Amino acid sequence: MNDTPTIPPRRPLTLRDVSEASGVSEMTVSRVLRNRGDVSAATRDKVLDAAKQLGYVPNKIAGALASSRVNLVAVIIPSLSNMVFPEVLAGVAEALDGTELQPVVGVTHYSPEQEEKVLYEMLSWRPSGVIIAGIEHSEQSRQMMRATDVPVVEIMDVDGDPVDAVVGISHRRAGRKMAEAILKQGFENIGFLGTQMPLDHRARKRFEGFTETLAKAGLEVMDQEFYSGGSALLKGREMTKAILDRSPDIDFLYYSNDLIGAGGLLYCTEQGFDIPGRLGLAGFNGVELLQGLPRKLATMDTERQAIGREAARIVAARAGGAPGGGERIEIEPKVTLGDTLRRYKP
Amino acid sequence: MNDTPTIPPRRPLTLRDVSEASGVSEMTVSRVLRNRGDVSAATRDKVLDAAKQLGYVPNKIAGALASSRVNLVAVIIPSLSNMVFPEVLAGVAEALDGTELQPVVGVTHYSPEQEEKVLYEMLSWRPSGVIIAGIEHSEQSRQMMRATDVPVVEIMDVDGDPVDAVVGISHRRAGRKMAEAILKQGFENIGFLGTQMPLDHRARKRFEGFTETLAKAGLEVMDQEFYSGGSALLKGREMTKAILDRSPDIDFLYYSNDLIGAGGLLYCTEQGFDIPGRLGLAGFNGVELLQGLPRKLATMDTERQAIGREAARIVAARAGGAPGGGERIEIEPKVTLGDTLRRYKP
DNA sequence: CTGAAAGCGCTAACAC
DNA sequence: GTGTTAGCGCTTTCAG
Asked: Domain locations in chain B?
């Protein structure tokens, strides 16, 4: 069972060690280990045996330098605390799963300076691709992405001028669509609740699209409430109470994410409000969590995992040598009315 | 403002390009760019100017090969869909933030074979450290981790025989403690709800510790229910209904995670059960979400972020040249009684 | 303070 | 099928 392999070596093993142990040239060892070119079954076995016996692990650093191929994909996201980004990452990992490619994560904390640093760091590894959240970047960052020859996929947002490929939704359009859905149900006194984050361009665009459509109907947002940090569910409750106490005439609350929306929904349910008769609610993202709530919050699914998957596919295709550049995949988010937005039966 | 930098080059730039552009030797350019050794302010400026002008991005592959230093930290986790792992990752990223180190993520989908592959792949990059979830691995994997000279930190679970360093909690002990807390409140007819996942060793150990303590009190788990896939919150509701319909005498439900626990809590609240008078509930993990629920679910905080942080610190310290090996950090999880476990006022 | 030479461990491109 | 020869782009080391 146990071959009691030779004493663990001080010096990391190299191809040369395998070559010597197997009596096969380094080059052929390399071929065997990479499954490249034709090698006779006999030598192949000799090499594989020797490699396993020694516990050889190839050095990809050297391999990458020699071949100028790096099977790393840089994924640059603002945060890991907001579940939407791990979801994107999961999509990336899923699409990369069958390939040789590996994701490397960089977190920017919504800071353009940090993004610049992370991007620079990532590019210095000459990855097979860069997947980066958002379409707004510092001029420096854009410059780097333009200058590099690695494929760049900007994700989540398509409203703007991508450097190369984009996969995402139009947040402006999403805001408009939600406003239309709300107006259609006859709501008129609308409050907005969101995050206090000047650099969240996607939320901003949604809000812009939203107010734009309201304006066309001669309406404007009646009251607003913002938060930062803390448990989103809890904040949702608190903000909802605050805004309703302040503006009791409100008949609809539009939340910039589902978690605060869910908090609001729980609060309103407890207060015994007639929903959506007296008060309608909607969130944004379509998170799985909503499935388990007492009532289904209206929302708009943004398919984060699909976005990650598609972005990774673009990178994988190009890493595989396929030509490309400037791909554009716009995902159409759909409104889910749930139990908190539909007042009129269809 | 804009220097209109020279035409973006076809061939990626090298040190040599910067050297030629600045009239400084490659070696000195390298020194400047890495902030190593003494360089006169004059040449330093010349170099920095040329580099920026050209838009030079160093090639870490080559650097790593030459210096045999790789500022990557491998983080190997079973999944990204369960928020606990992104949380660990966030802790790692946080601790690494000030350093030169970068996390690289590998996902195993709870499969030992996949773990082996990912580990091999990661080790072939000769990272500065490996942070890997769990303490149970295939013999092959353990072998690789033993053989390598990169620091290995096994995280989340300390019950077992670590290869090198460990940071985590004792799940067996966690199970026992929860059982004690439950018994202390006088509950006797206890049901267990968990995930259908034979390879989730941590859940298994918790369950073992739990039943062990019940056994000492002459009790055993009255009924059980398992799920896999889907929205945990929703599953929590469904399972709770199922187990209570089947075993109406149950007076306590122990959930293997907070999400299903929260689902159960919502269900029970809606049913109007007297909680915790008639029925007590407890989850596991201490997720932030619980803060916003109508009632606070009893749970046990596992401090995932702290675990990630500490693991990353160990790696960073050793990458910085500090001696080490075999570090062990056991985090003591604390029971939070919340509103669903305390029957007797203190 | 600065430079020249010699690799790091592997693979591309040819020979045989 | 298999081996040989040059590097990949950087840093280490050692001279000046």
From this structure: 7-56, 171-302
Residues B87-126 pLDDT 10s = 999 999 999 988 989 898 888 989 999 999 999 999 999 9
pTM of the predicted protein model: 0.91
- Local structure of residue A35 (DSSP, 8 states): T
Q: Which residue minimizes Cα–C1' distance to D7?
A: A66
As assigned by CATH, the class of the B7-56 domain is mainly alpha
> What is the rounded radius of gyration, in angstroms, for the C-alpha atoms of chain B?
26
A81 has a pLDDT exceeding 90:
no
- Residues of chain B with Cβ-Cβ distance to A270 below 8 Å are 294
In CATH, A171-302 is 3.50.50.60: no
Q: Which of A246, A243, A290 is nearest to A265 (CA)?
A: A290
Helix (DSSP H) and strand (DSSP E) numbers for chain B: 12, 12
Span A123-156, pLDDT tens digits: 999 999 999 999 999 999 999 999 899 999 999 9
Instruction: Compute the average pLDDT of residues A173-190.
Output: 97
Q: How far, rounded to the nearest angstrom, does the alpha carbon of residue A57 sit from its chain's CA centroid?
A: 32
Cβ–Cβ below 8 Å for A232 and B147: no
Q: Please tell me which residue of chain A has the smallest CA distance to B238.
A: A292
The gap between B53 CA and D5 C1' (Å) is 37
Residues 6+ apart with CB under 8 A from A246: A223
